[in-house]
Amino acid sequence: MAKKKKRKSLRQNFLSGRKIEARELKKNLSIKKLVDGYFQSYNSARLSEACQLLTRKMLKSQNSATICLTMAGALTPAGMSGMIVSMMKAGFIDFIISTGANLYHDMHFALGLNLHKGVFNIDDATLWKNGIVRIYDTYLGADTLIRTDKFLDQITSFEKDAPRGAISSCELHHYIGRKLLAKAKNPEISILAQAAKLNIPIYTSSPGDSTLGMNMASYVPDGINLTIDPNLDVLETAAIVMCAKQNGAIILGGGSPKNFYMQTQPMLWECLGIERGGHDYFIQITMDSPQWGGLSGATPSEAVSWGKVNPNELQNTVVVYADVTIASPILFSYALSEANPRVQKKLYLRREEFMGQLKKEDKGLYWWPDYEKR
Questions:
Q1: How do residues 110-144 score in pLDDT, each as one tens digit?
Q2: CB–CB of 249/282 below 8 Å?
Q3: Are 118 and 138 in contact (CB under 8 A)?
């Protein structure tokens, strides 16, 4: 009798979730009604969960999580700069880690250099002969690259206030952003320009792996002393995470930018002896699968084993297996319609303060006192 009662209770528990509704679509559905009412199963349900997590927890108050946006894959050539700028202006993104390519292509839009819709099934040799560069189904003229390079060359080689010596990547990006604000045709839709305006730091996990990095390298033979110091990037991002009350990320794609953010926690506990417990929130939109190694070694649960995600906060993690260009506009639109704007944290201006705190708390290599018992 007790077993039957327990089985019945267990069955009721399994069937206690929200009932799946077969609803007809209606005209003029809002983003909220679409996500809340129609995204019920599979990855639509994961996207709905991501929307709830972002708006109800990560963005809930002015003292809420410090949110990092990471970007991998060719997102800015697909026209996503403006969407990300909208999130930045609302105070929903506190710092960014991106591939250099995304930042380089962001500059085209700021400078008024056009990209065009094309097709992916075409003879690329014909494109090359006609001076056209292809990013899947997006076309741009080779002259767009040259004109962007010339802008970079002008501001980094000849401007009196150009940075020199070994600097963090966010210092370089902030400088480029300021120049775009002053000189570019459309700075209002540029991630780099608006980050400089709002004092949002932007880091690149692989500084040399883009045309932006290639341009920086091309100045070396000319005797221009300007280099990106990856050590500064590692320390500054770890310091930002260490000083935050709570930490969370919106991860678009995966790759190096994702891992660069996730490694801040092992950098703290493993290398500096500063235990912060792991990240508190985790939203990723990806098409990768863990069994191929394409998730940068960190599904949320796997990340717990590295000390990257707080084991007590696994309920505050969501992975949406979907195309970033489809899912992220929905996530961003939902957040902009449902969450109140936040005061800008202006983390770029606080880097020196955070680095001082990191130096103060650094205990050296971390050793578990009860290691043998584990």
A1: 999 999 999 999 999 999 999 999 999 999 999 99
A2: yes
A3: yes
- Residues with a known catalytic role: 308
| 128-167 per-residue burial string, b: 16 or more CB within 10 A, e: under 16 | eeeebbebeebbbbeebbebbbebbeebbeeeeebbeeeb
Global pTM exceeds 0.85: yes
pLDDT score of 304 more than 70: yes
User: What is the spatial distance between Cα 109 and Cα 76, in angstroms, rounded to a whole number?
Assistant: 9
Does 287 fall in a domain? yes
Q: Which residue has the tokens 């717990």?
A: 304
Residue ranges making up the domain that contains 45: 31-361
Q: Please count the CA atoms within 13 angstroms of the CA of 369 that sit on its side-chain side.
A: 0
What single letter denotes the amino acid at residue 197? K
In the chain, the number of structural domains is 1
8 A C-beta contact, residue 211 and residue 101:
yes
pLDDT in tens, 168-210: 999 999 999 999 999 999 999 999 999 999 999 999 999 999 9
Within-domain flag for 199: yes
Q: Are 212 and 218 in contact (CB under 8 A)?
A: no
**Domain annotation covers residue 2:** no
Classify residue 332: in a domain, yes or no.
Answer: yes
Tokens matching residue 80? 């996503």
Q: State how far the Cα of 215 lies from the Cα of 23, in Å rounded to an integer.
A: 54
What's the token pair of residue 331?
């996530």
Residue 106 sits in a domain whose CATH number is 3.40.910.10
Ramachandran category for residue 237: left, alpha or beta (phi over 0 → left; psi -120 to 50 → alpha): alpha
